[in-house]
Amino acid sequence: MASQAARPGIPDLFTQPPPIRDPLVTETTDLQDATLERCLPFLKGIHNSQSGPFNACGVPALQRDDHVAFAYDSLEDYPASFVILDASRPWMAYWGLTSLFLMGEDPTRFRERLFNTLRPAQNPTGGFGGGHGQISHLAGSYAAVLSLAIVGGEDAFELIDRQAMWQWLGRLKQADGGFRVCEGGEKDVRGGYCVMAIISLLDLPLELPADSEARKAGLENLTDGLAQYMSRCQTYEGGISGSPGVEAHGAYAYCALACLALLGSPEEIIPRHMDVPMLVSWLSARQYGPEGGFSGRTNKLVDGCYSHWVGGCWPILQSALDGKPQSNGPPATTVGHLFSREGLSRYILGCCQSNNGGLRDKPGKHPDSYHTCYVLAGLSAMQHYHYRTDSSPTSSKMFSSAFSWRSSPIREGNVYEKSDRLEPIHPLFGVPYPSADAMRLWCEARPITP
Ligand SMILES: [Zn+2]
Predict the structure, then answer these.
(1) Per residue in 163-172, pLDDT tens?
(2) Which DSSP helix (H) or strand (E) runs through 92?
(3) Boundaries of each Prenyltransferase alpha-alpha toroid domain copy (predicted)?
(4) Is the pTM for the entire model greater than 0.90?
(5) Active-site residue numbers?
(6) Nearest to 276 by CA among 216, 245, 333, 321
(7) Which positions ≥6 away from 286 have C-beta within 8 Å?
(8) Rounded CA separation 446/448 (Å)
(9) d(CA 97, CA 139)
(10) 100 Cα–ligand 1 center, Å
(11) Cβ atoms 140, 129 nearer than 8 A
């Protein structure tokens, strides 16, 4: 099937194996070849499972109705074999709600059900566990706070015990500036990003609580040493690892960059703590041809979820390179597109759509809630231009940059149909723009005293 001609409108770049090959054959190159063979019929638009319709660029339409049905279904009951997901309840909510919002559905209809899921998962000692009776974890707490931001409203914001959350974050802070993901747990860049997203959305005090162990090391604030910790995670390749000294990875790169962009203005803080040319080089190497999708690490395969983790790095870096924000509008000159939007569109719409609804890692894989959310988030990030302005709804100087982002749809050079455009989400928080502002402003009006 791979040797069949492609549909009209598809450049050879997206239908032919790369012209230059490393002659060394390894298990990795064999896997890459097999993946390419599997993707090619989808990229050419000739796989018998693709239902179309195809546009003049040879790109299939987004099967929106099927994906909406899949996202609604993902928020319903699960059979017993899914018991492993019992520790991911806030995530299941976040992925489903975000997918629905991206596709133009109203996620607020799940408010009461979300409250019923999250109330028992919150611990009186601060933070949310993955479910009832589980210890608090930063990943689950991040997903819980974001989900509550998405459904919005006073009763959603009031549900969070912000005082206890702040005390708990103080117990996770480490002497080297990083954060453990749970008490006694591992320390990595996810922790730092989740903490900064939680602090900025909930307007928590920056001071460390009096009983924080990190105070004994001379630290005073939750943010102390955090940017330096992120800096130590940039590797010899130019990418960013989960913790100092290990392999660079796309999802950690997003966490580190988003964390820095929450701590300060991207054009100042990112060049101060990262080697930007090396980072751009490593991120660029994550996009493969002819697949067009991103891989998470060197010598790994394309995977749809990196459309968000790697794709989400680009607006942040673009903003850093664009420099100081302008008054209430996009910058007059911009560094422009740093990756192939066409390639990513073709990979997502051609290779990641499961024909019964839901989005997936790659052809041959089953769709799931996680991939549906992050493939759609990547498609949305690719369809919109995200930039900062010099006005921000928050009265906090510290977070004025984080809340100054705006977006406008990209209208030039698209290979997808207008009807396939998704809603934009905030590039640092992963929630609708108004949801982030509303949560922050509600909390700002109800300050917590340290
Ligand atoms: Zn994946």
Answers:
(1) 999 999 999 9
(2) helix 89-102
(3) 62-430
(4) yes
(5) 249, 297, 300, 303, 305-306, 361, 368, 371
(6) 321
(7) 250, 294, 295, 296, 306, 310
(8) 7
(9) 16
(10) 19
(11) yes
Residue 333 CA to ligand 1 centre (angstroms): 34
Please give the span between the terminal C-alpha atoms of the chain, in angstroms, as a whole number.
65
Beta carbons of 372 and 92 less than 8 angstroms apart: no
Q: Are the CB atoms for 219 and 284 separated by under 8 Å? A: no
The answer to whether 124 touches 406, Cβ cutoff 8 Å, is: no
Omega into 290 within 30° of 0, i.e. cis? yes
Find the 255 Cα to ligand 1 centroid distance in Å: 16
Tell me how far the alpha carbon of residue 306 lies from the centroid of ligand 1, in angstroms. 7
Residue-wise over 1-15: b if at least 16 C-beta within 10 A, else e? eeeeebbeebeeebb
CA of 374 to the centre of ligand 1 (A): 9
d(CA 432, CA 35): 34
Alpha carbons 290 and 337: distance in angstroms, whole number: 18
CB of 193 closer than 8 Å to CB of 256 = yes
53-108 pLDDT tens trace: 999 999 999 999 999 999 999 999 999 999 999 999 999 999 999 999 999 999 99
306 CB-near residues (< 8 Å, 6+ apart) = 250, 251, 286, 293, 294, 295, 296, 378
